[in-house]
Amino acid sequence: MGKLLIVGSVAFDDIETPFGKSDRILGGAGTFIGLAASQFNVKSAVVSVVGGDFPQKYLDIFSDRNIDISGIEIVKDGKTFYWKGKYHNDLNSRDTLITELNTMADFNPVVPKNFKDADVVMLGNLHPDIQLGVIDQMEERPKLIIADTMNFWMDNTWDELMKVIARIDVITINDEEARQLTSEYSLVKAAAKIQEMGPKYVVIKKGEHGALLFHEDHIFFAPALPLEEVFDPTGAGDTFAGGFAGFLAESKNISFESLKNAIIHGSNLASFCVERFGTQRMETLQKAEVDKRLIQFKELTQFNIELT
Amino acid sequence: MGKLLIVGSVAFDDIETPFGKSDRILGGAGTFIGLAASQFNVKSAVVSVVGGDFPQKYLDIFSDRNIDISGIEIVKDGKTFYWKGKYHNDLNSRDTLITELNTMADFNPVVPKNFKDADVVMLGNLHPDIQLGVIDQMEERPKLIIADTMNFWMDNTWDELMKVIARIDVITINDEEARQLTSEYSLVKAAAKIQEMGPKYVVIKKGEHGALLFHEDHIFFAPALPLEEVFDPTGAGDTFAGGFAGFLAESKNISFESLKNAIIHGSNLASFCVERFGTQRMETLQKAEVDKRLIQFKELTQFNIELT
């Protein structure tokens, strides 16, 4: 069974959408990545930090899914990372109302001994120094290192971010971030420049407009499944990354064909994530539902044109 | 051989993009639709109107591609429809600087006798009364009537537009127009409402984000091909529609599977259109280039996940 190491925030989210308010619920990139990856046949661990206010029932959500939590440090007298945000009416943009880093401010990730030989490492969106620190703890070079990042680190920690980018195999960023990272408007040109910086594979997330995978001269595209209603987009990108990483850790096949399938699995899982507040939908998700929607993805995208 | 009747503007365009200025060149929805459809094995005719200032060499562009121009009225003492526009830096939006309707203001389309039994009718974006007038001239119900429209007609000629929509099989509109037409933000819900208004098939164009085909419970999606550079988006939507209609007129197969392929062919041709100013790229386009890019479309979208 493949081993997947996940590093990312485990947090409290407080979300307001046009459809309602969540109050304080389970959130964080590490959480969404872990839940998505747990849909695959992998041994996974989440490395993170929480405060003494983090309820046991939330930790149980990980354990119940065989996600190793020995790498989630609990700072008894600290408080858990808290984010409060409000989505605009079209759900495509949001305002951050409150960010309290709390224990995340001093996050010093310790990779569990048992995961220092993980096949796949998924570095959630964090300070590049933290991401580097995790790579340095690996006993052997993982088959695949995937890192997510965002514009904040480009603005504030450019040099550190460049060090991360030089050492990873796959970067996942959104379209605006790819443009910012390269000063190229064309995503084709941006992806080519990013590959020169290090990662052999570039995944550009376009939210409701799907995701692109670039590798050398190859491009693959997965749409987002058109949904009757999007309830809460929080965590969709991390769920996508978790599905992507989980599939690759299960298959241990690192080829362009395999990464294509990983993109589809990631998009498929993300389509569930947005149907309820926070992690609610991912907590109840069953394999039969996942498979059924994969068939929808096939119907959505597969065609048969014979060239004469 | 299938017969395709095209109704749409034949015009002068004057385009400015971040890459340069076109000066006065051949344009118009009927032109782009006709050029795209000429890539297929069809008998097609364009119905339109131009002024005495319209050069013979432009008419020859149609004739050279076996497009019947007996339905293009030439008003000797009139001037040809003229549009001048300037694109913003991201090419996703543009300002109209000048619109001179000229002879288009009194356009009274006359369907050539030989095309009153066309298999497929493609109604370009025009006043709904003109679109209705063409439908009324058909001697028998075409196998397929496709109509393009835009927000302007929703704002100004709602009742007439509803009459058109009730009588067509396929509507092609963009995402914002679909929302305006139905007051639904979700494109899935919007497409369902539009199907209740008449058309069995709804094609929603999302520009660089691809196109969706809706029919009953089925959804199909074709991405736009990611390009290194988009030079001039003018006519991309009409080229898409021309490829869509041309393929269906050639195949005479009106099924969801066939419409899926039509969407891909339309997207494929549109990817060429944007590579040069106006019609330039479409005028030189060869079948071998088209086929080669169809293979790229397959690589871009086709995957192989076996469900267990």
From TrEMBL, chains A, B:
Record domain Carbohydrate kinase PfkB: where: 26-281
Organism: Flagellimonas flava
Coiled-coil region(s): none
GO molecular function: kinase activity
GO cellular component terms listed in the entry, alphabetical order: cytosol
Source organism phylogeny: Bacteria, Pseudomonadati, Bacteroidota, Flavobacteriia, Flavobacteriales
Keywords, sorted A to Z: Kinase, Transferase
PROSITE patterns: PFKB_KINASES_2
Cross-referenced SUPFAM superfamilies: Ribokinase-like
Domain of life of the native organism: Bacteria
Official protein name in the record: Sugar or nucleoside kinase, ribokinase family
